[in-house]
Prior knowledge:
binds adenosine-5'-diphosphate; Nucleotidyltransferase, domain 5; EC 2.7.1.47; ATP binding; D-xylulokinase activity; D-ribulokinase activity
Amino acid sequence: MLFLGIDFGTSGARGIIINDNEEIITQVNHSFSNQNTNNLAKQWKDTLYLLLKEIPIDVRKEIKAISINGTSSTVLLCDSKGEPIEQPILYNEAKNVTILDSFQTIIPEHHLVKSSTSSLVKLLWWYHTKKIKPLAYFLHQADWLGFLLHGKLGISDYHNALKLGYDVENLCYPDWLKTLPINSVLPQVLPPGTPVETVNHDIVQRFNFPKHCRVCTGTTDSIAAFLASGAKHPGEAVTSLGSTLVLKLLSNTRIEDISSGIYSHRLGNLWLTGGASNTGGAVLKHFFRDEALEQLSQQININQPTTLDYYPLLKPGERFPINNPNLVPKLEPIPENKVEFLQGLLESIAKIEALGYEKLQALGATPVTQLYTAGGGAKNENWAKIRQHYLQVPVKISSQTEAAYGTALLAKRSQNN
Length: 417
Ligand code: ADP
């Protein structure tokens, strides 16, 4: 039996097919074309179908379940046939939060939805600009792409729906949300990876999927990337060393500190908590090319730490682990020796990472016992040793980091649902 995970990212889509042993059988990619940029939904639909066509037909015939992840808070408004009524609103497209003013007494203070990019603010913006018609459906990108395969409208998952205000603890929409005038367009929310329906007849005919192939609810891109690491026990964490430093920790307890950008997603009976710092690879990139990073890192004597104490940022302002919008970058003194300078930067980012996990633990999260690493900095072995020193836990490179792989795991685990 085979399982297909599809990741819709910012520049294109990727599909990964795994077998019962969670080994990758085939991977396919498709970049978004420059055509249809004024009709994003069509671009996604075309990309989805082209991606499915690229999977060898013999593989397609064996696929038992499919799941899709999209970018969090990328949303659509559709009519009763699933046709988008409006251009989708992308994950990073901020809407003016003054829209919330008229609902100030209804929406709880310090709620996650009170951000200019939350799904709820986008939905209220559509309401405010009178775009919501009777019988409309509000969906996230992953929900809509799933609909194209199974044909059922109005279904979402509780990862995508968190920033819509769904109560993931009690598995319902909170009463305050139900009193908002957008109540009628809210999707039904299911656990991620729940089988919704078998693939619809047209898709079976067109792509030769087996008739019993099931389409499951999806997740968001960053949770899919976490799942890809294989982390599944409380205390397991994934640090992403990309342009920014992103921490995710699986915890028995749910923790929130919205002003610091800390919140928790539900993962079965556990909580996936974390935060994002503005430090990270973008600062390294500012000073060093990738090849230089690799060569100079190999020359670091990790047994001889520097006394340099930086807070590497490209511009003032930090949210996590220190919540200070005016925090000034600290990058002085710069030693003449480049290896020493790089070592100072890597040590300082490692200290911020350790401080981040300490902060999550201080708020009540399960202590870190095992750390996986993803992103461009993951391959740096000396950095892993430096980080292990500050973090005092084993640091491993994630064997898989692709979101599509994590989503394929979700499709495979749907067999148990
Ligand atoms: P993103 O997807 O967030 O843009 P990536 O995961 O692709 O980022 O990682 C890119 C970052 O990785 C760059 O900022 C770069 O400085 C950093 N990077 C690349 N090679 C190394 C290395 N050998 N050691 C440390 N960092 C590295």
